[in-house]
Task: inverse folding
């Protein structure tokens, strides 16, 4: 959409070009690849307050989960009483569930309609069109490219997919989708609070809770598999962006709520 191009895509492309010129000026090799990493980190830093607010609200909601379950059990069959007790609990703990939605929506808009299409546009350009297209988007003549940028990053072409590179790179190319899936799994594992382990051991649960728990456990493994699968068919440059994005998310998740259920795995490794 034209409005997203004007408000998000083009400014992000300009920022990418600024980083590219800066890294090229100081003779950093593979400047485009490192520009994508730097751009992703900067976008994540800009979104940091929104993401932190969302994670903190999610943590509060998880901490209140046992009390919410007690309310459901106590007022089973009386939705009005449930709602009143739930709202009183939220008020007592200064929790507003809706407050976590706005940061999430803002992040989705910036990432889905800004960063992702900006990188897609730059990475899928034919080599002969890069200079012309980029120079038509940048805001200042000093940002113009004098020649098409090098799309290689440690021997890999950023605009090609692992699928396309398999014949030239060999099985080693599977490291990219596997790493992408593993990082996604680590982040997903960290998002489940350690207390959840005890909750899963409780036998008497409502059907809704059983469904939610099952869905959460399935998502923990299915999402990384799906992300890794997509990484095989997406360009290397997009995987570079996604992995940088995920690593930053892991660090931020740790700062807000620790390792979550991943802590158990870490403890086992330490005890070996």
Result:
């Amino acid at each position: 959409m034209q409005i997203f191009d004007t408000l998000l895509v083009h400014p992000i492309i300009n920022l990418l070009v600024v980083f590219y010129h800066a890294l090229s000026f100081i003779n950093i090799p593979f400047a485009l690849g490192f520009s994508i990493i730097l751009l992703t980190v900067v976008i994540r830093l800009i979104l940091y307050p929104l993401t932190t607010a969302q994670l903190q609200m999610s943590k509060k909601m998880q901490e209140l989960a046992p009390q919410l379950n007690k309310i459901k059990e106590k007022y089973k069959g009386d939705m009005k009483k449930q709602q009143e007790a739930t709202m009183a609990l939220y008020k007592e703990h200064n929790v507003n569930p809706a407050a976590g939605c706005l940061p999430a929506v803002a992040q989705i808009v910036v990432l889905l309609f800004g960063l992702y299409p900006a990188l897609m546009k730059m990475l899928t350009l034919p080599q002969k069109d890069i200079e012309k297209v980029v120079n038509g988007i940048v805001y200042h003549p000093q940002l113009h490219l004098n020649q098409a940028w090098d799309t290689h990053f440690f021997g890999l072409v950023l605009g090609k997919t692992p699928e396309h590179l398999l014949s030239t790179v060999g099985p080693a190319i599977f490291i990219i989708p596997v790493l992408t899936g593993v990082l996604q799994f680590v982040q997903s594992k960290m998002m489940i609070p350690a207390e959840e382990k005890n909750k899963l051991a409780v036998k008497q649960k409502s059907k809704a809770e059983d469904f939610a728990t099952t869905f959460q456990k399935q998502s923990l493994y299915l999402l990384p598999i799906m992300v890794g699968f997509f990484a095989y068919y997406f360009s290397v440059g997009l995987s570079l962006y996604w992995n940088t994005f995920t690593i930053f998310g892991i660090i931020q998740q740790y700062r807000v709520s620790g390792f979550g259920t991943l802590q158990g795995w870490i403890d086992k490794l330490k005890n070996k």
Observations:
- The chain is about 75% helix and 0% strand.
